[in-house]
Amino acid sequence: MSSRAVTTRSEATARPAGTPPGRLDHGVRQRTRRSRVVTSMLAQGEPLMWLTGGGLVLCCVMIVGLLGLVFYEGFRTFWPQPVESFELVDGQTYWGEVSRSEEFSPEPSLLENLDPAAAEAARAEMAEHEGELRRHLVRTGNFDLTSEHFNWVSDYELVDGQPTRPEWAIVIERLSWGRFYGQPVAFLEDGDVVVEGADAVWDRYRAEHPVVRDRYDRMRHLETHAMARLNHRVEQARLERRQAELDHGLDSPEWRAADAAARQVEEETAQQFADLTDEIEALRAENARQAMRLETATGQTAEISLGEIVRAYPANQVSTWDKISLYASRWSEFLTDEPREANSEGGVYPAIFGTVVMTLIMSLLVVPFGVLAALYLREYAKAGTMVSAVRISINNLAGVPSIVFGVFGLGFFSYIIGGAMDQAFFAAKLPSPTYGTGGLLWASLTLALLTLPVVIVATEEALAAVPNSMREGSYACGASKWQTIQRIVLPRAMPGIMTGTILAMARGAGEVAPLMLVGAVKLAPELPIDGIPPFIHPERSFMHLGFHIYDLGFQSQNSEAAKPMVFTTTLLLILIITGLNLAAIWLRTRLRRKFVANQF
Amino acid sequence: MSQQKETSMEQPAMRAEAGGQGHAAAAGKGESRLEAIAAGATIEADIHPELRAEDAVLEIQDFNLWYGDKQALYDIAMPVPRGKVTALIGPSGCGKSTLLRSVNRLNDLIDSVRIEGDMLLNGDSIYGRSVDVIELRRRMGMVFQKSNPFPMSIFENVVYPLRIDGEGNRNVLKEVCERSLKGSALWEEVQDRLGDSALGMSGGQQQRLCIARAIAAEPEVLLMDEPCSALDPIATSKIEELITDLRGEYSILIVTHNMQQASRVSDYTAFMYLGRLIEYGPTAEIFTNPHLKETEDYITGRFG
Ligand SMILES: Nc1ncnc2c1ncn2[C@@H]1O[C@H](COP(=O)(O)OP(=O)(O)OP(=O)(O)O)[C@@H](O)[C@H]1O
Ligand SMILES: [Mg+2]
Questions:
Q1: Less Cβ around it within 10 Å: N or C end of chain B?
Q2: Is residue B258 within 6 Å of ligand 1 at its C-beta?
Q3: Which residues of chain B have pLDDT under 70?
């Protein structure tokens, strides 16, 4: 094909000068006609329209595809799946939820090692499906018994070629060891069987479990809140003693007073600690009294105490309504509870809290600074090389990789400023750092620095858009410069400033890399705002949804089980950022309606 | 840039020449005077004797102004009579706005501006060393060519000069607002919606709002720079009526391109050309019987 094209072209160029005029004319006419077509196409803009339109469509498809995937996977995670029973020709039986199915091309060696019946089935399936076999990834759970969370099952291995759905297969979500799949056999109290038969056991379980859950919640409350308060008291007394030692020296009268006070507190709290521990132990023992005995697919039995069970349901019997309520209960656990099982189960409430609080503090820090800087640049500074240099630097700051800000935050805020603060105000706690390590405040400050250029640039543009005639009008009324800025320029520029804030918030809330260095952690024992004075603890490390996603996706022991949670958490992060932005946009619209109505 | 300005400055002069040729007999003197100005010579302004008898609220004394290297005002010396309306007329670019903005020192905001000479407001120097510019501006009101209401409510717009002065008494503010809006003939239209945004008003209403704002602090001089140029005839006539009403109470210095307007509303008229004051006298005389040929040519539309 190409070689023929080449010869034609060489023929054309090699045509001798004395070509008949008719052919030449023809060529010229053709060329003009063709060029006319091209110009008219360009004039109407058709190819360019297709080019630009195509670009837009491509962008839209990518965005819609991304959002679609996240929404589909994110919303699907909590929907209860049926439990299927896979009976294999080699005698194995698996119960579990199918987490995904796929086609694969088997290695030839795979068939050779199979037993004859299965190999036959496999060959038949391959003949039918263009050499491909179908297999399922089954979440089989029962990790404590089998040491596996998931198993691959291929269609050709099945005894009947089809999985079945056992009526009394129950899914149990536990506090530890992941899910359990099995069939209820007996209900035990203090180790004695009180009820037998799947039906009866299930009914009994349904009656007892809510009470057990209430007890569990009470226990958690005591463990976290009451214990923490006591610990705080003791710690406070110890710190005071240490401070007295640092200020006045060991064995000084001040120290002796503080020491006596600390001993007093320790004595008082020792009793309370003992009472608390007793109460918690009593609750735990009460919860351990009742248990359910279950039989797994392979015939093993296991006893699971009711206190261990978070949620259980007979997956193949539940009605649509039950499924919806299960779905809702899983979502509410996800949104309001703390994580369990290395973050792959339970909720993300601390991460939601951390994300929102950090974003708000960041906005509170970045907006005033950004606006002040932009005001100086636009209203006060005399235009010149200096101002241009500053402006260029600010724009370049926006392009610095965010991890660089993380390193800066760690080095400057945590180590230098935080270290100095620890020396000055929290010496009693040293060597364990208070502000001298990553924390909410430093993370917010680092992100504020990161988003500062966005706010400055947006504010400068908003200020530039305020008509000079308004400023002159104000000056003509006898206003000073600051009065003009405060009463005329800033209100008029406020919607633009809000736009900058929105952009900064969106950028800051989604940032992860710098947070890993300055305070976001996998699991934070305490929230940065709680009931213990001084109520707000900006020095505490915190959880963040973005970091949580990274942790789930790449650091999880049970990554296959964590995968759906990655999507759900991503979905949540997107929704939260959207929510924050909508709030800011709503605020901006209100401001705009107030200040800039239609003119003429 | 500078070249462009030069040509635009020469153009009127050339046209004046062409106009002059039409009246060969009488044109001799006028032609030479405009040519002399274009060439940069200093000429004496013709100020009618009636003005000497008036009590001046504002006294401009040999005022020169430069934008960078370019001189925009040359030796302007003129009194502005108290309680009268004084109109400034002249071809575009002759420095009317510059002169007006010099009175309340708005030109201070432009870095390149340099001035010589002084003005006296009721005997007080405007450009003296120790003058507090903000205090000075509070003694004057200014209305701009393009209305510039502030992004706030109608009420707040009107009382803005008092607010920045620190006046917080609600009753005083209300009283001033009503008086000013009545003074600018806007009260009837907006008395029910004083809390609405000023930006939602019509263009004519906005301009009258700006006038209300300008008179709210009872200024000693009211400066108006083509206040009607962006308005329809009805709004224009309203504002003209307003100016007529304000006469006597306020001393008004108004720039206008509209000869009819100048003759309708003003007591005195000053004709400027290329940064110089040419002729200044009672409006009736300037329009019917000017001393100078150039003034007549400009007013009758033969140039400019
Ligand atoms: N900010 C400025 N910088 C430099 N030159 C200026 C500036 N403002 C005005 N000028 C120049 O000063 C001269 C007088 O301008 P001015 O605005 O006073 O004219 P004007 O008489 O008001 O004209 P118009 O009737 O068109 O409003 C013009 O040549 C103009 O180019
Ligand atoms: Mg002007």
A1: N
A2: no
A3: 1-33, 40, 303-304
